[in-house]
Amino acid sequence: MATKAAKKTQKAQVAKIVQYEYHGVDKKGKKLKGDISAPSITVAKAELRRQGVITKRIKKKPKPLFGGKQQKITPSDVCIFTRQLATMMKSGVPLVQAFEITAEGLENQSMRKLLLELKTEVEGGNSLENALRRHPKYFDDLFCSLVGAGEQAGALETMLDRVATYQEKSEALKMKIKKAMKYPIAVVCVALIVTVILLVKVVPTFEELFEGFGAELPAFTKFVMSLSEWMQANWYMVIGFFIAVPFTIKYCLRKFPGFRDAVDKGMLKAPVVGDILFKSTIARFARTLATTFAAGVPLVEALESVEGATGNIVYKRAVANIREEVASGTQLQFAMRQTGVFPSMAIQMTAIGEESGALDAMLEKVATYYEDEVDNAVDGLTSLMEPIIMSVLGVLVGGLIIAMYLPIFQMGKAVG
Asked: What whole-number distance in Å separates Cα of residue 216 and Cα of residue 185?
C-alpha cells in the first residue's frame, strides 16, 4: 500500500502541465478571458479562484491546426531564468512565487511550461535539486549539484546568484568562441557563392563573345571557361556537397567518438583559432572549479564536474588524471603540472591559492584573465580577417575579370 501511495505521489509530482483557456468574471462582474497552465482542470480552477476569477467556462486549449512549431529552450533562456530567480529570492520572494512571477513574464511558451512543471514539483514537496534533475536536457549535473549544495547549506539565494554568474560568464565565453569561428566560415561561404555566380552567369556571356574572335585564347582564359562549363553542368553537385558536408561532420561528431576526439585535438593545433580555444578551455576549467569549490563541494567531486565542463577531450582526460592524483593525496598544482597541458600562469596561481587557503579566489582570477585574453584574441582575429576578406574576394573576383578581359586586351594590342 505504501509503495502504491508513493508511486501515486511521484506521478502527481511529475504530472504534465496543460494549457487551458478560460472565460469568467471577477468580483465586480467584469468579463475576463485568458490562458492558464496547470496539471489538471481542477488545479486550474482552484488557481483561478485564488486569483479572484469566477470561472464560467474552461477547456483545454486546442493545438494549432498545423501543429505549431514548439519554441526551443536555449542555454540563454536558462541563464536568464537563473538570474531572475536569484534576484527575486535575494529580495525575499518565496521560491514557488518566484517561479510564478518568472513564468508570467516569459514569451517562450516552452520555457514557461518548464517553469510551471518545476513549480508544481516543488509545491508537491520535492526539493529544487530533484525537480531540476528531472530535466537533464536543460539543467546539467553541475547546475543541480550547486543548487543542492545551496539547499543543504540554507543559502539557496546566494548559491543561485553564484550559479547565475557562472552561467553568464560561460555563455559570454561561448558567444566569443562562436564569433571567432563564424567569421572566417562566413567569409569563405561568401567568396564561394560570388565565384559560383560569376562562373555560372557572367563567364558564359563572355564565352559567346569570344567565339566570334577566331583567335587563340590565353591559357588562363581557357582554364576559367572550362571551369565555368564544368560548373554549369555540375552545379547541383557543388550545392549538394556544401549542404552535405556540415551535416556529415555533425553526424560523425555525434556518432563516432574517435572522430570527435581527433577534431578536438586538431582544433587546438589550428592556427589562430587553436589559441582561442586553448585559452577558452583554461578559462572554463578555472571558472567551473572556482564556482564548485567555493560552493563547498569537495575538490575531488568538484574536479568530476569540471571534467565534463572542459568541452575538449584533451582537457577532459587531463582533468580525469588530475582527479585521480588529487584523490591519492597529490596537491592540485603538482597534478596540473604533470599533465603538461596547463600554462605556467594557471599552475602558479593555483599554487598560491593552495598555500594561502584562497584557491577559489585565485581560480576566479585565472578565469577572468583568460576570458579577457579570449576577448582580445577574438577582437584581433576580427581585425585580421577584414583585410583577408578583401584580399580573398579581390583575388577571386579580380582573377575572373582579368581572365575575361585578357583576350580583349590582346586583341587591342594586335589592332594597335
From this structure: 39
